[in-house]
Amino acid sequence: MKILLAPSETKIKGGINNFDLNSLLFPELTSIRKEILHKYINILQKNDFQELSKMFGLKKESDINYHNRDIIHELTMKAIERYTGVAFDYLNYKDLTEDSKAYIDKNVILCSNLFGFLRADDMIPEYRLKQGEAVGELKPEKLYKEQSHLMEEYLQEEDILDLRAGFYDRFYKPTKNYTTLKFIKGGKVVSHWAKAYRGIVLREVAKAKIDSLEDFMKLSIDNLSIEEIQTKKNKTEIIYNIVG
Q1: Into how many domains does the chain fold?
Q2: Where are the alpha helices (DSSP H) in the chain?
């Protein structure tokens, strides 16, 4: 089973290794990644405050200046460790056992707004790009979606658990059967806390080393009970009720 996970705009600083674009999942995407990165770096070098503010999704000059750096020469860390935010906080990757970390590294695929499809253990630098924002005239989600056949081939023999926000369908939407999750509390769909529960679910999946959707359906997760399961075309949605 492979798990699809959205990135976050916020990232942890630091790193250990030099960046190697060719080492990322799907080397076939290297030319597209180079094109986007070239445009991204050109925009940084122009140092236009308004353009950088828009691309970064930031307003404070100090924040914008911080992210105006040549990311090609920045040190890297695993993508799953680089990203921060609610889902990643609740996943708490650093405190997992080595076996559970290895499960995440092998089975989680992230969808970066800049680099496209990444395995959790792909080594990436710190960068900033607002969700859905173009890089100059380039729209990364469009360029990567045009290559989504790579994901189709990669996932051909896999069960798919899609924990991404709906926006990331613009990068890749499975054409084979896949499963998503929805969380409700008091009869209402939760949004912000859905991110937390995606992280919680992923943590429990990794701890149990789940390898199929059949086994996932049997997984007991604290404070979650299955309310309903809906299937429409190739999408199955598990609706969890948050209890307690």
Answers
A1: 1
A2: 30-46, 49-56, 61-67, 79-82, 86-91, 98-107, 140-145, 149-154, 192-208, 213-217
- Close Cβ partners of 162 (under 8 Å, ≥ 6 residues apart): 3, 4, 174, 178, 179, 180
Block residue for tokens 């990322």: 24
Local structure of residue 158 (DSSP, 8 states): S
| Cβ–Cβ under 8 Å, residues 230 and 239 | yes
Domain with 141, as residue range(s), is 2-242
One pLDDT digit (tens) per residue for the chain, 244 residues: 999 999 999 999 999 999 999 999 999 999 999 999 999 999 999 999 999 999 999 999 999 999 999 999 999 999 999 999 999 999 999 999 999 999 999 999 999 999 999 999 999 999 999 999 999 999 999 999 999 999 999 999 999 999 999 999 999 999 999 999 999 999 999 987 899 999 999 999 999 999 999 999 999 999 999 999 999 999 999 999 999 7
CB atoms closer than 10 angstroms to residue 68: 16
DSSP element (H, E) containing 58: none
Nearest-5° Cα angle at 93, 89 to 95: 100
First to last CA, the chain: 29
Q: How far apart are the C-alpha atoms of 44 and 36, rounded to whole Å?
A: 12
How far apart CA 131 and CA 141 sit, in angstroms, is 10
